[in-house]
Write a structure and sequence with these properties.
Helices cover about 40% and strands about 15% of the residues. It is of the alpha+beta class and about 400 residues long. The strands form four sheets. A five-stranded antiparallel β-sheet has the order 2-3-4-6-5. Strands 1-11 form a two-stranded antiparallel ribbon. Helix 3 runs antiparallel to helix 5. The protein is globular and about 70 Å long. The two termini are about 30 Å apart. This is Pkinase-domain-containing protein. GO terms for molecular function: ATP binding; protein serine/threonine kinase activity. Belongs to the protein kinase superfamily.
Length: about 400
């Protein structure tokens, strides 16, 4: 096999924006255009045996990028000797709930408008044969800090391509526990309806400032989800929310996925479809401001979560320090992940070379003038997706 051909990287490294399970996210500046991107940096050694995860994410994003204004676009992907890089829209407007809490007021119509926009994007994702599987406020970002900025669905790392005509359904447990549908926990097979359930949880959260299945333990939370055990309580938080909005949440949180509305049907619900906004009026007839109660609940939950996290961290450290072999394995794995992510962060993009294992004459550069794809990323993106259960 000939030695790989390399070309200079066309991006300059910016600040680190965040860190995920297997990757870090850095700001990247395209040298020729000066345009900023959010770049997912994935250590190649860490991804050994998990290549299907990257292949899947690229395949999903190639299918839907630029197809809807409220979905992040994958602009470029390439490989260096150490890392894989995926360059996305840089969303600088912050997360959904932070943005709400920073507002001076917040009405039910605002919540309905947000849910309508997100559901329209979800309908597009589903019509493209894809299920997202990790819809939650943290994955809903604003493109810019501007007041009228687009809200964007991000992070398609858990998404899957599921053609409408295929009857097989996914059975692995994945997602973020409080937003996961009953069928995920039950392992009875899941598909696009899990995104509608997650949107029901998101809507509840947008109206009250907390999620419907909050419990003291993960086991209790899972049992509540499986049973659909939630209430519109305490009443002080829901007295200012219309019955129509509650009905919408109830529809999305239908336990049976066969009876749960599709994204298209959710958009036809009168809470989203009616031209006249639904709200509980103040004494003067004006819509009630939901922000005071929403912020109060959100801040209380944040404080509780911080305390709970500290206790869990102490308990986890104590268990890892013990002699149990699983504790040692977990500790070793955690340390390996940390080291690999540190390695990823240390690579300076503008000093790196992009590797091309294929013939450069057959290489099509990106439309923005960037160096384009490397062999591994291209193979991952172009491979036929044949995900197996639990793969």
């Amino acid at each position: 096999m000939p030695n790989p051909t390399t070309v200079p990287c066309q991006y300059r490294t910016g600040k680190t924006l965040g860190s995920g399970t297997y990757a870090i996210v850095k700001e990247a500046i395209h040298i020729k255009t000066g345009k900023y991107y959010a770049c997912k940096v994935i250590n190649k050694k860490l991804m050994e045996g998990r290549e299907h995860m990257v292949r899947n994410e690229i395949a999903v994003l190639k299918r839907i990028s630029s197809g809807n204004p409220n979905i992040v676009t994958l602009h470029d992907y390439f490989e260096t000797s150490h890392n894989l890089y995926l360059c996305f829209d840089l969303c600088t407007g912050g997360e959904l709930f932070d943005r709400i809490c920073a507002k001076g007021n917040y009405y039910e119509a605002d919540a309905a408008s947000l849910v309508r926009t997100i559901f329209t994007a979800v309908q597009y994702i589903h019509s493209s044969g894809i299920v997202h599987r990790d819809l939650k406020p943290e994955n809903l970002l604003f493109r810019t800090p501007a007041e009228e900025a687009d809200i964007m669905i991000a992070d398609f790392g858990l998404s899957r391509i599921m053609e409408e005509e295929k009857l097989s359904m996914l059975t692995e447990i994945c997602g973020t526990p409080g937003y996961m549908a009953p069928e995920i926990f039950l392992k009875t097979g899941h598909s696009k309806p899990v995104d509608v359930w997650a949107m029901g949880v998101v809507t509840y959260f947008l109206l009250a400032g907390y999620t419907p299945f909050d419990r003291d333990t993960p086991k209790a939370e899972m049992e509540a989800i499986i049973q659909g055990d939630y209430k519109f309580e305490p009443e002080e938080y829901w007295a200012n929310v219309s019955q129509t909005a509650r009905d919408f949440v109830t529809a999305c949180l239908t336990i049976d996925p066969e009876r749960r509305p599709t994204a298209a049907e959710a958009l036809e619900h009168k809470w989203l479809a009616d031209t006249t906004p639904h709200f509980v009026p103040e004494a003067d007839g004006a819509p009630t401001d939901l922000l005071p109660h929403v912020k109060k609940a959100f801040n209380a939950k944040l404080t509780w979560k911080k305390a709970a996290f500290s206790i869990k961290a102490l308990n986890r450290m104590a268990s890892l320090a013990g002699s149990h072999p699983l504790g040692k394995e977990a500790q070793a794995l955690s340390e390996s992940v940390r080291q690999y992510k540190e390695e990823s962060a240390q690579e300076v993009m503008e000093d790196a070379s992009i590797m091309h294992h294929h013939n450069l004459h057959n290489h099509t550069p990106s439309t923005d003038g960037s160096a384009g794809t490397a062999d591994v990323a291209a193979q991952l993106a172009q491979a036929t997706l044949k995900e197996k259960e639990g793969e």
